[in-house]
From TrEMBL:
GO molecular-function terms, A-Z: lipid binding
Keywords on record: Membrane, Transmembrane, Transmembrane helix
Alphabetized Gene3D superfamilies for the sequence: Bactericidal permeability-increasing protein, domain 1, Bactericidal permeability-increasing protein, domain 2
Species of provenance: Novymonas esmeraldas
Descriptive protein name: Expression site-associated protein 5 (ESAG5)
Membrane spanning stretches: 9-27
Length: 528
């Protein structure tokens, strides 16, 4: 018996070596160094653009909802350093608790890359601070504080495109119509009351000094602080822009690079114009080519994968009665699932209102992670014993980049092994995409076609034809009718006059916004 086992093991090793040598001889291009996945900054990506246009009405509503709370954030402060003025020493003044009742913008004024801001009923508080007055041997200590109310201002916000692919904001032409500055002070000692007239002169000087400092601080620092806050947001954005803002009195438009910064793509070439849009409050324009390029870039960036570790109680003990060898090779070892695309999905729009999607080489797998070297060795032996075809499949049927990625990703430390890994191909689509009355989207999801093949199995033989047929049957006979039953899909109540045009080349969509409905909704959910 032992002699037979040794003989079988010997011929298994010989077979593996022969298959490896044969693959090496027949596919010489595989002898090249494996492709590197630690790319240098800025890999070449295909262009994927999305253009967006927003009406001035929506811009103003967004500013009311976002900019005003940002201005009124308690973390926003301006600081005036301590000062010595003749006989008066004034401690550090902290300007805080900014208030703003309304902020309205006129887009496209004074030019296509600027907007004019109108701030109404602005206010702030000067935090209680110390002062010292000394004159003719009289030394008085005290506190002061102040409030500014009913101040109005106008300014010009300019937005330009910088080479890094984001906007740069500048605030200029600030004009302030000052409201009432109420200044309060109190003395520490009643002894200063002896020199009442002198103190009155002193407090008058102090009030004048405080008012001048508050106003100059707002004039000098507020525009820079607003621009700095906006530029920090622009620079940290997950997406780059390709155009500066293209503004008119009716709308603001921009073209965005749909490839997120996380893809590591080069900065796209700048442009100065935007395409035509459907006439709606919010409009979006893109193309099927941009969608496919985005998906291709996502695969290049290894972004189209989902890996999920299962709860601790879902371990190899699940297989104790089904595949006992797997459990005994690695008792109570953790499991995780992986879905990873080797090739980009292909989106086609063959005719108006129809979208077809096909995917190939989708790795869908359940994996076990060894918790010891002994378990890793046992799993490896069990895997190669179960998967006689794994080597030839590994080298023959999967493209080289996917093989390298799969090998480095799944077997990165030789402690992770497949329970079952399948390669899946699928094709489906949607037709009759259209809007209904501007308040809903109609559609018809088409049946799916699925094909599967086994990449590696630790659970014995899998009939992939039966498995694919089962998936098709469940989805096509149950899932598709349920999904189509929900058509037309109603849009949120504050979206109106929706438009959707999916053509062979371009994809356009848009909708109008019920501003009052949006604001009411945002207040109801606590956003405002």
């Amino acid at each position: 018996m032992l002699r037979r086992q040794r003989r079988a093991l010997f011929w298994c090793v010989i077979s593996i070596c022969y298959l490896t040598w044969l693959g090496y001889r027949l596919w010489p291009e595989r002898r090249q160094s494996p492709p590197r996945y630690e790319r240098d900054a800025g890999p070449r990506c295909l262009p994927a653009n999305v253009s967006v246009a927003v009406s001035a009405t929506v811009v103003n509503a967004a500013i009311q909802a976002v900019a005003i709370p940002w201005i009124q954030d308690d973390n926003n402060v301006l600081v005036v350093p301590e000062q010595q003025l003749d006989h008066v020493w004034v401690d550090t003044m902290v300007l805080q608790h900014f208030r703003l009742e309304s902020l309205i913008v006129n887009t496209g004024l004074p030019d296509a890359q600027s907007m004019t801001l109108h701030a109404a009923r602005f206010g702030l508080e000067v935090k209680k601070s110390r002062f010292v007055f000394q004159y003719l041997g009289i030394k008085c200590y005290g506190n002061f504080w102040a409030t500014l109310n009913e101040t109005n201002a106008t300014a010009v916000l300019g937005l330009t495109l910088v080479p890094e692919g984001h906007w740069n904001a500048t605030v200029s032409q600030l004009m302030v119509h000052w409201g009432v500055l109420d200044i309060h002070h109190e003395l520490d000692s009643k002894a200063c009351g002896i020199a009442q007239r002198i103190v009155e002169v002193f407090t008058g000087e102090l009030d004048t000094f405080i008012a001048a400092k508050v106003k100059s601080k707002l004039d000098e620092d507020a525009p820079a602080k607003i621009a700095e806050g906006m530029n920090n947001k622009f620079a940290s954005s997950s997406f780059r822009v390709i155009t500066p803002p293209v503004m008119t009195e009716e709308r603001v438009a921009v073209t965005i690079d749909a490839n997120p910064v996380s893809f590591g793509c080069e900065v796209a070439a700048a442009a100065q114009t935007v395409p035509e849009f459907v006439p709606r409050d919010v409009a979006v324009h893109t193309s099927a080519a941009s969608v496919n390029n985005f998906l291709l870039n996502a695969v290049q960036a290894q972004a189209l994968q989902v890996q999920e570790r299962l709860p601790s109680y879902m371990n190899t003990s699940l297989f104790i009665n089904v595949v006992p060898e797997l459990y005994h090779a690695c008792p109570d070892c953790p499991l995780y699932t992986l879905v990873q695309l080797a090739n980009a999905p292909v989106v086609e729009t063959p005719e108006r209102g129809r979208v077809s999607v096909s995917v190939e080489n989708v790795l869908v797998g359940l994996y076990v992670e060894a918790n010891s070297r002994k378990s890793a060795a046992a799993l490896a032996a069990h895997l190669w014993a179960k998967s006689a075809t794994a080597i030839s499949f590994f080298y023959d049927d999967v493209n080289r980049s996917f093989v390298t990625q799969w090998h480095r990703g799944i077997y990165r430390d030789m402690n992770t092994f497949p329970v079952l890994a399948l390669l899946v191909e699928a094709r489906s689509g949607i037709r009759n995409l259209d809007t209904v009355g501007g308040r809903a989207i109609s559609y018809e999801v088409l049946p799916v076609q699925v094909a599967m093949s086994v990449m590696a199995s630790n659970v014995g033989r899998i009939d992939t034809d039966e498995l694919a047929y089962a998936v098709e049957t469940v989805w096509n006979d149950v899932g598709v009718p349920l999904v189509n039953l929900a058509s037309p899909l109603r849009l949120p109540f504050f979206l109106r006059k929706a438009a959707l045009d999916v053509g062979p080349m371009d994809i356009d969509s848009g909708f109008n916004v019920g501003i009052k409905d949006v604001l009411s909704f945002m207040k109801s959910v606590g956003f405002m």
